[in-house]
C-alpha cells in the first residue's frame, strides 16, 4: 500500500513541493563558566512577548528561537543558522547552552521565571509558568529540546482514500493517522538521534534514581539514548491518566478538555493565589492545553484569546509538532540538515503507511513501553522490542523501517530535485549496525575521553559553536534587519500594554470562558 501511494504521489509532485517545515529550538543562556544566567532577557534581542523569532520558554534564561515555515530544508537551515548568529553576536558575554540537559543551575528558588511585561497577555504567560514551578519545580523546566513543525499540502490526504465528508475532516483524520504511526515508531527517532545519555549531578538535586556514576559531577546510563525523554525528564503525574493514544481528533480534544477543566487535589491544595498574587491559572490537571506532555501534538494557529481546543475543534488540524528531538550537541544550531531530511521522510512514511486504530491492549501500551525502553537502554546489545504481541530485535525492525523510509526519501528527493534525501536515510544504517555510531554513544565516548564531566564537555562544545557563529557574523543587511525587528518588537509590547482596558482577573476569566467543549461526533 505504501508503494502504491508513493507512486500516486509522484504523479502529483506539486503536493510535496508545498510541504512546510519549521523549527523551534530552545537553549539556556549561560555565562562563560557555564552557570545559568540570572539576568533579564537582553533588551538588544527585543521583546520576548512580541518578537517573531526570538522569545523565551519557561525561564527568563531559556531562549527559544523560532523560524518561519519553508518549502525546503536548505531554506529552513539557513534561517535557523541566521537566528543563532543574531543571538551569538548580540550576546558577547554569554553563550547559548547547546545541549538538552541543563547547565550549572542555581538553587531552585533562584531560577528566574520568564517575564513578558505588565500587559494581560504577558502576565498570563508569566502566571502559567509560575504554575509550572509550583507543580514540577523550576529545575525540570530548564530541560531544552528542538521542536520540528511540519505540514503537508491538503491534497495529500486524498491519497489515503479517507471517508470523511469535508476536506477539513479528511485533513484532521490524516494527521491523526500520522500521529498514530508516529506513536508506533517514534522509538526509532530516539535511537537514531537521542543525544542525552548523561546528566549533571547538579541537575538531579540528589535524586539519582538508577543512574550510574561516571565522575563525581556526572551520572549516566551506559545504554541510554535520551535521558531527557525518560522519566527523569518533564513528566506530569496528574496527566498520567491522559492516554496518548487516540483514534480521532474529537477523542483527543475530549480528553484534553477534561484535563483542562477537571480539578486535581494536589493542585487544589496549592490554590491559585498566595499573599494576593496569582501563582497558577487554575487547579486543574492542566492549567492550559500547552501543559500537555507528549512526543507529538496536533496543532492549529490561534487568534487573540482563542484556546487551542476551540481552534482545533472549529478549523481542524493545521500541522503537527514533533517534540521528542534532543538538541544535537555536535551541531551549532542543534540539528543537521541530514536529520531534518530524515524527519521529513519519516513523517511522510507515517502519513502514507496504513495506520490501524489503537486498542487498549494492542499497539498503544506496546508503543509506550518501546519508547521508554529505547530512551533508557536503546543501545543495549541484542535489545528486543514488542511488535503486535511478539518480540522483535530492535536492529531487525529498524532495518525494515529504514527500507520503507528510504522509499519516502526517494519520493521527496525526486519531487524536490534534492539528491540528498536518500543519503540522509542511508546514513542511519551504520547506527543500526553499530550502536557506537549513534549520537548518544558518540557523546558518551567524547565525555569519557575528555575526563567524564558532562558540564565541562557541554560547555566546551557550546563555546566552540558560539565562536563559529560569531566568526561568520552578520552581514550589514542582516544586522540592520535584526535591529529593526528587535526595536519593533519593543514598540509592539508597549502598544499592547497601553491598550489593556480590563484587570488581569477579568482577563483570566475571559480567557477561561473562551474555552468551548468539543462537540461530540
Automatic annotation (TrEMBL):
A Pfam family in this protein?
Answer: Glu_cys_ligase
Q: What's in the GO CC field?
A: cytosol
Gene Ontology biological-process annotations: glutathione biosynthetic process
Q: Which residues form the Glutamate--cysteine ligase domain?
A: 13-372
**Highest taxon of source:** Bacteria
Q: What is its EC number?
A: 6.3.2.2
Q: Give the first-level EC class, as a single word.
A: ligase
What is the protein name given in its UniProt record?
A: Glutamate--cysteine ligase
Task: Tell me the organism.
Answer: Zwartia hollandica
Gene that codes for this? Answer: gshA
Amino acid at each position: 500500500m505504501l508503494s502504491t501511494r508513493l507512486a500516486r504521489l509522484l504523479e502529483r509532485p506539486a503536493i510535496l513541493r508545498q510541504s512546510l517545515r519549521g523549527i523551534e529550538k530552545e537553549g539556556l543562556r549561560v555565562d562563560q563558566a557555564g552557570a545559568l544566567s540570572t539576568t533579564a532577557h537582553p533588551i538588544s534581542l527585543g521583546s520576548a512577548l512580541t518578537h517573531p523569532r526570538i522569545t523565551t520558554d519557561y525561564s527568563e534564561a531559556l531562549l527559544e528561537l523560532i523560524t518561519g515555515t519553508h518549502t525546503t530544508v536548505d531554506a529552513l537551515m539557513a534561517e535557523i543558522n541566521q537566528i543563532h548568529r543574531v543571538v551569538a553576536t548580540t550576546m558577547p558575554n554569554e553563550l547559548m547552552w547547546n545541549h538538552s540537559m541543563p547547565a550549572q543551575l542555581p538553587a531552585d528558588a533562584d531560577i528566574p521565571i520568564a517575564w513578558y511585561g505588565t500587559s494581560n497577555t504577558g502576565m498570563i504567560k508569566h502566571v502559567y509558568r509560575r504554575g509550572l514551578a509550583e507543580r514540577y519545580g523550576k529545575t525540570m523546566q530548564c530541560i531544552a529540546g528542538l521542536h520540528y513543525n511540519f505540514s503537508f499540502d491538503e491534497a495529500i490526504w486524498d491519497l489515503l482514500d479517507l471517508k470523511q465528508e469535508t476536506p477539513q475532516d479528511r485533513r484532521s483524520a490524516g494527521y491523526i493517522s500520522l500521529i498514530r504511526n508516529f506513536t508506533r515508531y517514534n522509538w526509532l527517532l530516539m535511537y537514531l538521534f537521542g543525544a542525552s545519555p548523561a546528566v549533571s549531578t547538579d541537575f538531579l538535586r540528589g535524586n539519582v534514581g538508577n543512574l550510574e556514576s561516571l565522575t563525581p559531577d556526572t551520572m549516566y546510563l551506559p545504554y541510554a539514548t535520551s535521558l531527557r525523554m525518560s522519566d527523569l525528564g518533564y513528566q506530569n503525574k496528574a496527566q498520567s491518566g491522559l492516554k496518548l493514544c487516540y483514534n480521532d481528533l474529537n477523542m483527543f480534544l475530549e480528553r484534553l478538555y477534561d484535563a483542562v477543566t477537571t480539578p486535581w487535589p494536589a493542585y487544589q491544595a496549592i490554590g491559585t493565589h498566595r499573599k494576593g498574587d496569582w501563582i497558577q491559572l487554575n487547579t486543574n490537571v492542566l492549567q492550559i492545553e500547552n501543559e500537555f506532555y507528549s512526543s507529538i501534538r496536533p496543532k492549529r494557529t490561534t487568534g487573540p484569546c482563542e484556546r487551542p481546543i476551540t481552534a482545533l475543534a472549529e478549523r481542524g488540524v493545521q500541522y503537527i509538532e514533533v517534540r521528542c528531538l534532543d538538541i544535537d550537541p555536535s551541531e551549532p544550531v542543534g540539528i543537521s540538515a541530514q536529520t531534518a531530511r530524515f524527519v521529513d521522510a519519516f513523517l511522510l512514511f507515517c502519513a502514507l503507511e496504513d495506520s490501524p486504530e489503537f486498542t487498549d491492549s494492542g499497539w498503544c501500551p506496546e508503543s509506550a513501553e518501546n519508547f521508554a525502553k529505547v530512551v533508557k537502554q536503546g543501545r543495549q546489545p541484542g535489545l528486543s522490542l514488542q511488535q503486535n504481541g511478539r518480540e522483535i530485535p530492535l536492529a531487525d525492525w529498524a532495518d525494515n523501517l529504514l527500507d520503507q523510509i528510504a522509499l519516502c526519501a526517494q519520493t521527496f528527493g525526486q519531487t524536490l530535485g534534492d539528491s540528498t534525501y536518500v543519503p540522509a536515510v542511508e546514513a542511519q544504517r551504520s547506527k543500526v549496525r553499530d550502536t557506537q555510531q549513534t549520537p548518544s554513544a558518540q557523546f558518551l565516548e567524547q565525555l569519557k575521553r575528555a575526563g567524564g564531566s558532562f558540564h565541562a564537555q557541554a560547555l566546551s562544545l557550546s563555546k566552540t559553536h558560539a565562536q563559529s557563529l560569531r566568526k561568520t557574523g552578520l552581514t550589514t543587511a542582516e544586522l540592520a534587519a535584526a535591529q529593526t525587528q528587535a526595536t519593533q518588537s519593543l514598540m509592539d509590547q508597549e502598544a499592547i500594554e497601553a491598550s489593556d482596558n480590563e484587570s488581569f482577573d477579568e482577563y483570566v476569566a475571559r480567557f477561561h470562558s473562551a474555552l468551548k467543549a468539543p462537540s461530540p461526533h
